[in-house]
Amino acid sequence: MYFKDIIGQDNAVQMLCSAVAEGRIPHAQLICGSEGVGKLPLAIAYARYLCCTHRSGQEACGECPSCKKFDKLVHPDLHFAFPIYKKDSSKTPHSDDFIDKWRQAVAENPYMNLNQWMDHIGTENQQGLIYASQSEEIIRKLTLKSSEGGYKVMIIWMAEKMNTECSNKLLKMIEEPPAQTIFILVAENPDLLLPTIQSRVQRLTLRPVEEGKISEALTERYGLEETDARQIAHASAGNWLQAVESIHLGNRTKEYIELFMALMRRSYARDLKGMRQWADMVAGMGREPQKNFLIYCQRMIRESFICNFHRPEINYMNIEEANFTSRFAPFVNEKNIFGIMEELSEAQRHIEQNVNAKMVFFDLALKMIMLLKN
Fold it and tell me: Same domain, yes or no, for 186 and 260?
């Protein structure tokens, strides 16, 4: 990734480049923001810029040996830590166990979210974490001398997934790293990081990508007509990943739409057998997809409620979602929206706490019966 590949974050790029030019490079940087705004691409492009031996202006040269290695993410002074799962309970897990799959996933989709990454590595119904054992590996790598005499860069993606033990072990290293060692933490929910970690990093928050920038990129990269590009850009709500998925309507997105529609239809019809089958189907998904589905349901309930105000400029849905919502919206109103949202949030908490998924989702479907009748 280069800075030029990042969509709509020109101000952030300028800030980073200015800091490098003025010799104000923070030893620990936190790049945060919502999904699809370009946090990981920016972190990689920044690392490339730092390690480039012939950078100029606001871009790496692309020709030096360092840049050539960054093209394949194999630079010896570039290190990654990211959420993984335990393939074998007897083995201590490290990010390097998945590094080949990581490089492939980043090359294919640097804007990927956690759910896509966990699907890519096949989590076997486990949640992704950054374990304490990874902190030990991070410390080991960063205490070694730089292979090429420049910066050593550690990118910790989805840093909020570090467990408490891992975070505590990294505190001293983040506060006082070896010379020319740079930490770049990437997070969607930075407030989930330990306060002691937050106090040791310089935060850079990325804003949602402007509609015009997304529309322009869709036209250039995917050859969309201007009208279609504008419509998709608006529905994406500043999320480039969502905009791209709207074009392809990926398998996971289709699945979420169909499951949401099935939940609402079967609950309204009081189809107990169908609700049980629905709960069993959702329970067969992994924990991360289940959590993301519940987050998706909360978004769709909000969109349905807003739809009742007949203000399409503040609705953010793709065509299939909008078609369903146009008929479903009247059933979401001021009498039941808070109750529906509370039940969806509680189900999400239970899934995060590893409560039996079949019980959680069947209970949710039953509660929707009364809520939709309001």
Answer: no
Instruction: Please check whether residues 214 and 183 belong to one and the same domain.
Output: no
Query: Do 235 and 257 sit in the same domain of this protein?
Result: no
Say what the pLDDT of residue 249 is. 59
- Torsion angle (degrees, nearest 10) of CA 331, 337, 343, 347: 90
Same domain, 226 and 151: no
Contact between residue 371 and residue 336 where contact means Cβ atoms under 8 Å apart: yes
Q: How many CA atoms lie within 13 A of 52 on its CB side?
A: 24
pLDDT of residue 89: 65
Cα(347)–Cα(349) distance, rounded to whole angstroms? 5
Task: Looking at the structure, tell me whether residues 277 and 233 fall in a common domain.
Answer: no
Low-confidence residues of the chain, pLDDT below 50? none
Structure token digits, residue 108: 């294919």
310 backbone φψ class: left, alpha, beta (φ>0; ψ -120 to 50): left
Whether residues 59 and 192 share a domain: the answer is yes
Residue 253 pLDDT: 76
User: How far is the C-alpha of 127 from the C-alpha of 121, rounded, in Å?
Assistant: 12
Same domain (yes/no): 291, 168: no
| Domain count along the chain | 3
Euclidean distance between CA atoms 249 and 255, whole angstroms: 10
